[in-house]
From TrEMBL:
Residues 140-287 form the Tetrahydrofolate dehydrogenase/cyclohydrolase NAD(P)-binding domain. The keyword Magnesium does not apply. GO terms for molecular function: methenyltetrahydrofolate cyclohydrolase activity; methylenetetrahydrofolate dehydrogenase (NADP+) activity. CDD domains: NAD_bind_m-THF_DH_Cyclohyd (cd01080). Pfam families: THF_DHG_CYH, THF_DHG_CYH_C. This is Bifunctional protein FolD. Catalyzes the oxidation of 5,10-methylenetetrahydrofolate to 5,10-methenyltetrahydrofolate and then the hydrolysis of 5,10-methenyltetrahydrofolate to 10-formyltetrahydrofolate. Its EC number is 1.5.1.5, 3.5.4.9. Pathway: One-carbon metabolism; tetrahydrofolate interconversion. It comes from Altererythrobacter epoxidivorans. GO terms for biological process: L-histidine biosynthetic process; methionine biosynthetic process; purine nucleotide biosynthetic process; tetrahydrofolate interconversion.
Length: 297
């Protein structure tokens, strides 16, 4: 079997078109653009890839982008003060603090400061709780994008065996909740899982984001599997390359000849993540402006 390559860029482009319309309508109704604030502390490589794609996409969608780049040794109280300032700023509808934070910072304490109504990553205790309880919530962009891709491809996911590889607050945990809500049988695998190939063997759906290049081998996957690769790993540069290539967590070249469908890296899940971030920002902007939910997103 040769897999369908899922075109994350095309999926994202369709979503961005709808978002652009909502953003324009928001500006008509309120007299200002919806705004997204991004805070990057230090130099995490995956975060740098994200920030680069994000600023451009935000402006292209008719929204405003506010970027804060802070040194890795920024003190806790300064970062908290910035988050509080953004919480209070009416021009800011969404706040994204890039994770992981440098080790000298208390990540949980920073996250708890974010206004849940501006929490476009869905990582505050309020939004995480609301997701688990099946209430309306802002939900982390990568897992929400993966769910949108799966539903677009398959329609009903009921009864499917899904394996989520990774258990982070941004990816694995919300991903598992979203798949549960779609009536999948969900298994969560992670760095202490004993026999990952065996766990993966029965998966109809594999969703991975752990940050280990090529961790998942082609022959670990069953031939009918649908594979969404959320890994963003920069390899060391090959001779003649200035920067290393960005690759996923799945050995794509092996898997592509084997499974039913797979997302490439780049151009798959990551491309969708950005569009979902804009989606969450416009949803937050509408709700906070008292305009209700924008339709069709
Ligand atoms: N609080 C927080 N929320 C996040 O969602 C978050 C984070 N922290 N920290 C870093 C990771 C990484 N991440 C990416 C999302 C999209 C691309 C992306 O745009 N990828 C494109 C372009 C890649 C390229 O430029 O080559 C693609 O895969 O096609 C990359 C990386 C979000 N993260
Ligand atoms: Mg893990």
């Amino acid at each position: 079997m040769t897999a369908v390559q899922i075109d994350g860029k095309a999926f994202a482009a369709k979503l961005r078109e709808k978002i652009g319309e909502k953003a324009a309508a928001f500006t008509d109704k309120t007299g200002r653009k919806a705004g997204l604030a991004v805070v990057l502390v230090g130099e995490d490589p995956a975060s740098q890839v994200y920030v680069r794609s994000k600023g451009k996409a935000t402006v292209a969608a008719g929204m405003e982008s506010f970027e804060y780049r802070l040194p890795a040794d920024t003190p806790q109280d300064e970062l908290v003060a910035l988050v509080r300032k953004l919480n209070a700023d009416d021009a800011v509808d969404g706040i994204l603090v890039q994770l992981p934070l440098p080790k000298n910072l208390d990540e949980k304490a920073v996250i708890a400061e974010i206004d849940p109504d501006k929490d476009v990553d869905g990582i505050t205790p309020t939004n995480a709780g609301r997701l688990v309880l099946g209430m309306d919530a802002l939900v982390s962009c990568t897992p929400l994008g993966c769910t949108m891709i799966l539903k677009d491809m398959l329609g009903d996911l009921s009864g499917m065996d899904a394996v989520v590889v990774g258990r982070s607050i941004l990816f694995g945990k919300p991903m598992a909740q979203l798949l549960l809500a779609e009536n999948c049988t969900v298994t969560m695998a992670h760095s202490r899982t004993r026999n990952l190939p065996e766990v993966l063997r029965r998966a109809d759906i594999v969703v991975a984001a752990v940050g280990v290049p090529f961790l998942i081998k082609g022959d670990w996957l069953k031939s009918g599997a649908i594979v969404l690769d959320g890994g963003i790993n920069r390899l060391d540069p090959e001779p003649g390359e200035e920067k290393g290539r960005i690759v996923g967590d799945v050995a794509f070249d092996e898997a592509v000849g084997h499974v039913r469908a797979i997302t490439p890296v780049p151009g798959g899940v990551g491309a969708t993540t950005i569009a979902v971030l804009l989606r969450n920002t416009i949803v937050a902007a509408y709700r906070n402006a008292g305009l209700g939910d924008p339709e069709g997103l």
